[in-house]
Amino acid sequence: MKPFELRLAQQHSQNARHVKNLRAFCDDHTRFSRLDPEDQSLILLQLEHMSALDDILSARMRRLNIPV
């Protein structure tokens, strides 16, 4: 792989891991519900944007024939 392809794959891997962990935290209602409502909203917004980034990185990788 070229250096930029490797960076892209690494970024995708790290972001996907963060999305998975953040989603698990949000799904744990006993922990998530203890947060202030504004913090809950911000975390959900963060999850939405990180998920969108994951989709974009995946699409770029597919266009470069890098396994997703």
Topology:
Elements lengths: L2 H25 L1 H4 L4 H27 L5
Helix pairs in contact: 1-3
Q: How much beta, percentage-wise? A: under 5%
Query: Assembly type of the shown chains?
Result: single chain
Order of helices and strands: HHH
The largest sheet is: none
Notes on the protein architecture:
With 68 residues, the protein is mostly helical. Helices cover 82% and strands 0% of the residues. The mean pLDDT is 97.
What keyword list fits this structure?
68 residues; mainly alpha; elongated
Q: What's a concise summary of this model?
A:
Helices cover 82% and strands 0% of the residues. It is mainly alpha-helical. The relative contact order is 0.17.
